[in-house]
Design goal:
The structure holds 2 protein chains of 2 kinds. Chain A is built from 13 helices and 14 strands. Chain A is α/β, with parallel strands linked by helices. In chain A, the strands form 3 sheets. In chain A, strands 3-2-4-5-7-6-12 form a 7-stranded mixed β-sheet, sandwiched between helices. Chain A has a 5-stranded mixed β-sheet with strand order 9-11-10-13-14, sandwiched between helices. A two-stranded antiparallel ribbon of chain A has the order 1-8. In chain A, β6, α8 and β7 form a beta-alpha-beta unit. Chain A is globular and about 60 Å long. Chain B has one domain: 3-Layer(aba) Sandwich (Rossmann fold). Chain B has 11 helices and 9 strands. In chain B, the strands form 2 sheets. Chain B has a 7-stranded mixed β-sheet with strand order 2-3-1-4-5-9-8, sandwiched between helices. Chain B has a two-stranded antiparallel ribbon with strand order 6-7. In chain B, a hairpin with a 4-residue loop joins β2 and β3. In chain B, α1 crosses α11 and α4 packs across α11. Chain B is globular, with a radius of gyration of 19 Å. Chain B starts with 5 loop residues before the first helix and ends in a 20-residue tail after the last helix. Classes of the chains: A alpha/beta, B alpha/beta. At the A-B interface, α3, α5 and α6 of A face β2, β3, α5 and α6 of B.
């Protein structure tokens, strides 16, 4: 028997910070750039202390110029650096969408393979903090629409700690979405936690009766629902997608081959969504495995409202997952 | 510096402008012959800007250009053959036919496109310069853009970032008076473009963009400023486009008279006259230059004609890198 790995208590925020520190220490080409990342310490306090440790060249405060500094990140990647660009939230990334789509995702192809863009963009996403419509949307599905990008959604401490370095080693642009409700999440990580793969989905809870496919903060709602369902004798298998582009089809399809029931839980809106894409893929590749149609639980198709009870009503919740799952089990 | 004598130097500049002019005339012809498709934005009339500015750059410097960039690509020394083949959409083109006229890229000459989103190349240039500064490399990134780009947020964000971080960017504004087909006076409250650069604390100047020697001089002053670590420089080159915006433009927004009034300011005529006045150019030499340029362009057309089509099976290549990270 090998020694059990030494574990330490940490949070999602600290895990991301450790990942940043690790990257900055490993590779002198790495630098962090974004709004309030330096002197303020990061709007979610993720980069707190890094300015003091690494200095203002590598922990670079930017003006409120999302288009400008995302484009500068792309240019510096072309110029030999390994930038990590932080956009405060996905809602603000819309100001930089031209650079993300028309340059970061496109230059390699348009140049006939000559110019790749080794850039990582991190941003917060999601609702749940009563921040209202302009700070609460989950638009990662939109960005996962774009060929040329990788889109990652670390939900666990292990992934918050481990995905960044692997993303930096990728020769092409990678977007990392950190759900804003996860930063305070506590748990333990091995002392020697390090890089993880960014290509596969993971079964976070095995089960035989029903497959719940989700990612990001919805993972924990799905796991909570699975606990409730287990008390009623329903064993849900919960899959954490981890990567929204490319999608690891094999993991959820093999689960469906076992359970014959699929429920997709996605904090994004339903119409034209990632949930729609996954549903179509299941239909295309596992139609005859299904005992009943694929179900989807997404956010209500409204701008996310401010009032707590309304925001909660708009989002996928564990109770809704339980209700849908029970309904699915009573058919087929 | 170079031991090149004045006559040789000016002949080289003239040849470079002639190459662009004749190359684009041929491109227009091949467009009509349906060999070239999509958008084709001709630079005819503006040659002095690209040729003059390139004189101020070294091979180590980087160039970021717009969708009207045949002139910059040629003046930078990219292969006429690879550019023509690209416009034909052939595999032998500089981007395997995936970019076309608006997206010319070349690693060897550090030519970063060919950007068809107005202002889209500007933040990129800022980033290239940031990388150079962080890595301690004394290189200049030269960013071309038009007067239309000055209205974009990207212009203002890039000016501020480059100035704030004292980055080695040479901003070259090619002011040809029209943002596509709308005159500056209909879109800009302040039409002194150099003043906009200056408002961000960027050293700025304007120059007659039809006079290649004036452009060269101004660009050398500007590049020297940037190379010495003084931060960015904004150079407005006042120029004029003799041809329509693109092959689809019916030019309803300007009169033929206006275009004709600019023709005597043709940069090739101006330089030819300058050289003739000083006894640095005679008729046989000019005829020889024209023959050389024509031969180079004919060779480019032949190369493009003989080119092959990329296999459709390769369609999805270059969405992601085929090499690992370095």
């Amino acid at each position: 028997m090998s020694e059990p790995e030494a574990m330490k208590k940490t949070t999602y925020r600290e895990a991301v910070r450790e990942a940043l520190r690790d990257a900055l220490l490993r590779d002198e080409r790495v630098f962090l750039m974004g709004e309030d990342v330096g002197h303020y310490g990061g709007c979610y306090a993720v980069s707190k202390g890094l300015l003091e440790e690494f200095g203002p060249e590598r922990i670079r405060d930017t003006p409120l110029s999302e288009l400008g500094f995302v484009g500068a990140g792309i240019g510096s990647a072309l110029g030999g650096m390994r930038p990590i660009v932080e956009i405060m939230t996905v809602n603000f990334s819309l100001l930089a969408l031209d650079q993300i789509l028309n340059n970061a995702a496109t230059l390699l192809h348009m140049s006939g393979g000559q110019f790749n863009v080794p850039l990582v963009i991190r941003m917060a996403t999601g609702a749940g903090k009563q921040l209202a419509a302009q700070h609460a949307h989950s638009l990662e599905g939109w960005l996962a629409h774009i060929p040329g990008l990788r889109v990652l959604t670390p939900a666990t401490l292990e992934d918050a700690r481990g995905m960044l370095w692997t993303a930096l080693e990728d020769p092409d642009p990678v977007l990392i979405f950190e759900n804003n409700t996860l930063y305070n999440m506590e748990g333990t990580l091995p002392e020697n936690a390090g890089p993880v793969d960014i290509a596969t989905a993971r079964v976070r809870r095995p089960g035989r009766d029903l497959t719940i496919i989700t990612y990001g903060a919805s993972l924990f709602k799905a796991l909570e629902a699975a606990e409730t369902l287990a008390r009623e004798g329903i064993e849900a298998e919960v899959i954490d997608l981890r990567s929204l582009r490319p999608l690891d089809d094999a993991t959820y399809l093999s689960s469906i081959a076992k359970t014959h029931r699929a429920l997709i839980v996605d904090e994004d809106w339903r119409s034209g969504s990632l949930a729609a894409e996954i549903s179509a893929r299941i239909m295309e590749q596992a139609f005859y495995e299904l005992d009943l149609p694929v179900a989807r639980l997404c956010s209500a198709e409204v701008p996310i409202p401010y009032a707590r009870h309304m925001e909660e009503a708009a989002l996928p919740q564990a109770e809704k997952i339980v209700a849908i799952a029970k309904g699915m089990m009573s058919h087929g | 510096m170079s031991s090149e004598d004045e006559g040789t130097r000016l002949t080289r500049l003239l040849r470079s402008m002639l190459l662009i002019r004749r190359f684009e005339e041929k491109a227009a012809e091949m467009y009509s012959a349906m060999k070239i498709r999509g958008f084709l934005h001709l630079y005819i009339g503006e040659e002095a800007v690209a040729v003059g500015v390139m004189e101020a750059l070294t091979p180590e410097d980087a160039v970021v250009a717009t969708y009207r960039e045949h002139g910059q690509a040629l003046a930078r020394g990219m292969s006429t053959q690879a550019i023509m083949a690209e416009m034909y959409g052939k595999l032998e083109g500089c981007c395997r036919g995936r970019g076309g006229s608006m997206h010319l890229f070349n690693v060897a000459t550090r030519f970063y496109g060919g950007n068809a989103i107005v202002g889209g190349g500007m933040p990129l240039a800022v980033g290239l310069a940031l990388a150079d500064k962080m890595r301690g490399q004394a290189r200049v990134t030269c960013c071309f853009f038009g007067d239309g780009a000055v209205a974009e947020g990207a212009f203002h964000e890039s000016m501020n970032l480059a100035s704030l971080w004292k980055l080695p960017v040479l901003f070259i504004c090619e002011n040809n008076l029209y943002a596509m087909g709308t005159a500056l006076r209909y879109t800009q409250a302040v039409r002194d473009l150099a003043a906009k650069g200056a408002s961000y604390g960027v050293a700025a100047a304007a120059v007659d963009g039809m006079d290649v020697l004036a452009v060269e001089q101004a660009a050398k002053t500007a590049a020297d400023h940037v190379r010495r670590g003084n931060g960015p420089y904004f150079l407005e080159c006042r120029t004029y486009r003799f041809r329509p915006h693109s092959m689809f433009d019916t030019e309803l927004y300007r009169t033929k008279d206006e275009v004709e009034t600019w023709k005597p300011r043709d940069p090739i005529i101006l330089l030819t006259r300058h050289m003739e006045d000083r006894g640095l150019l005679d008729e046989p030499t000019l005829a020889k230059l024209e023959r050389e340029v024509a031969a180079e362009i004919e060779a480019a057309v032949a190369f493009a004609e003989a080119g092959t089509w990329e296999a459709v099976e390769d369609l999805t290549r270059f969405v992601h890198s085929e090499k690992g990270a370095s």
